[in-house]
Every structure is written in structure tokens, then in C-alpha cells.
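Feature request, filed as a ticket because there's no other form

It would be nice if the structure record came with a short human-readable summary line next to the C-alpha cells. Right now we just get the raw output. Example of a typical job, pasted below so the devs can see what we mean:
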Amino acid sequence: MIGRGPVVQGESLVDYPGERVARTLARSDRDYPWLLGQIYDPPAHVFVEGRGCPPGLRVAVVGSFDPTPARTTLAFRLGYQLARAGAVVVGGLFPGIAAVAHRGALAAGGSSIAVLAWGLDWPVPAGLQKLRGELARRGMVLSEYPARTPPSLRQYRASGRVISGLAHGMVIVDGRWPGQELLPADFALEQGREVLAVPGEAGSPLGALPGVLLDCGAVSALSGRQVVAAIREAGWDTV
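Raw output as currently delivered:
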């Protein structure tokens, strides 16, 4: 668990459990992520650690907690390629596809944004402590929940709306149909974001969701550079 420290709120300090200095941003604050503020019913406040919202096209990478080895490799490569193409990866901080994509982006020297489904002071899942620290140093860790808020299934489901709200587009790497991996894609479509899916793994339960999305008209995600081009062609620029 993070130790004790302050959150900066305007020119005052708000007591907050965290060994690193974190900020709380209201929608009226200049540093509140502009794109997130445009969604329906955006968070009134967000709590952030790190360097602020990194500039550049932002791409959410989402998928299962239990990917196959092939999809794990693919998610790392996608995060790496997105960063090399100048994009910022956005995702949750959970085992599986999200964590691997963050690691790929950082390995390429890029930035990444992690969205937590709990307060900033709460411990992250086992094995992700080092990654969380790197994300705070080189990107941003964000939560809509105040200190001492433990994780819950409701908050996990709701985090998809913030993940898609921060991003210009979303890539679904894997997922079951029906399954919880569909929730972020639903939010992205409701918010008018470009949704892409990684083809392949036919016959695998985790290949079902990308297959359904592709059948419904989602763009195939074939490489990081192609994903960036597809999102730009859909009319998104960096904001």
C-alpha cells in the first residue's frame, strides 16, 4: 500500500494517503482531461498521479484477464507499436491484456495512462506494483474514486466509461461473447469513439468478442501504425 502524503487541489493541500504527491482535478480545472470532460456525465473530480495527461493520440487497449500466450505477445507488441507510432496507451490496471499493453508502451519509451477502479491509496493486484510506479513516473495513473475506496465489481464495470472517455479510439484484443470485456466497447460506441478489434483465434472462447465486433463493422487492428491511421481517418485529432 502507498504511504501517506498530500493531494494538491488548486493552491491547497488535501490530506491523502499516498507517498507520492497526487492531485485532485475538478472539471473546471485547466488540467482536467478535456476529452473525458465531453462524455455524458463525466466524473466531477478525478484523482491523478504522474505527469498529467500525456499529449498525443490516445488509444485504449482492452481485453481479458486470462489471455492466451499468443494474445499476451500480441498485446505487448501492440502497446509497443502504438507508442512507436506516437500514440499513448490507455487501459485499466489489471492482470492480462491491459497490463501487458502498458508494459509494451513503456518498453518503447512511450507514455501510458492507467485507470483504476479504486482509490489511489488502495493496493494494486499482485505483481503490478512496479508497473504502477513506472506508469506514475512516465505517464499518468487516474481514478475517479477518492482515497480509501476499495475495488468492487460495479466500479470495475464503470471504469470502462473513463477508459474510453480518455481515448480517441479503442482496440479489443480478446474477449468472450457475451462477457465483461464487451462493456468498454459499449461505452466507446456510446461515446462515438472508433472501435477496432484484433482478428484471429477462431474457435477460441476468447476470440469470440473480436469476431462479433468485426462482423458488426469494427475495423481490423493489424498493427499499431494501422490503428493510429484508422483513428485519424475516422476524424479524430489530438485533444
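Something like this underneath would help us a lot:
Residues 5-233 form a domain with the Rossmann fold fold (CATH 3.40.50.450).
The longest strand covers residues 45-50.
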